[in-house]
């Protein structure tokens, strides 16, 4: 293992050998567990295929507002089973369409000026405004609160989100595109990295039925190579209508079973030669290697501009290859991440990349470059952020409220210190 900036960079061959060594003697237990799992996932597949897009849990933003900012219990139960959900009507469609127009003006204006065509932009004024939209931030807090801390000792605050800067997708009508099934937030690290491996303890013990996908204990302490922030949910805000056959996302809505499936199958399948093991950037869920996940993928139900789609960081997903809609299929990637010292450290780095107009820190590690947006105009400023935006992005200290307990106050203070306040 090579250590670079205090993060491990795996030697792939050595990492696979080490993983295999770790599981020596446990093959029978894992295989029996896997066989039970396949039966269960086949059952899920039947349910998902019978229900279609309606299988994805959905609520209205007002359901959360009228429930004191929390996800209603019946929805929370479904999210815990599936690992994904849609909150409808979070931002006014007109507002979202205005932001999309600003993103396109930034694209086309800078393309004309510099001759450089960048479509995966992160620093368009329209995106910066969307990220700090107050109703959206309330949804992030509600989503983060679906995770839990069994010991009560973990340093995290669910309802004080921290912002991970990501890009957007504007896919014009009929435009090809799409993405095969995959999982983000790390690849081989899930088997190999000591702390990451602990998140799946029950699965390694042959007891996948007891796996808790929502335990934050280890997640907030994962110092990974190319995913330095804990993203509780990946997510996007719809900037257009989207739905079946309109070039949008497909999700594998069985969080516990599908996670156990890709983790166990990789270990027990004799077809998994070294070349087929994932690298560090994510897990490609190839149809030939992980057929059941691909068969469980379902396109989300119809969404409108301003709806918020969220999925667990372990959840398999893909993007439809066909886009037969007559309008663009567009999203702004805005995940939900809670406050924790790990995420505060990321904000401290991200502040710098933001002010350079560069890609976020994780993206720079992956792509080995700051990106062409550093030559674009306007370069983002601190003043582009509202008071709320400044907190989310690490430009202003977090504050405590009258209802915050001592533990929360201490974590807020610790995170503020990391950010230099
Ligand atoms: Fe992805």
From TrEMBL:
Domain of life: Eukaryota
Gene3D superfamilies in the record: B-lactam Antibiotic, Isopenicillin N Synthase, Chain (2.60.120.330)
Signal peptide residue numbers: none
Matches recorded under Pfam families: Gig2-like
UniProt-recorded name of the protein: DUF1479-domain-containing protein
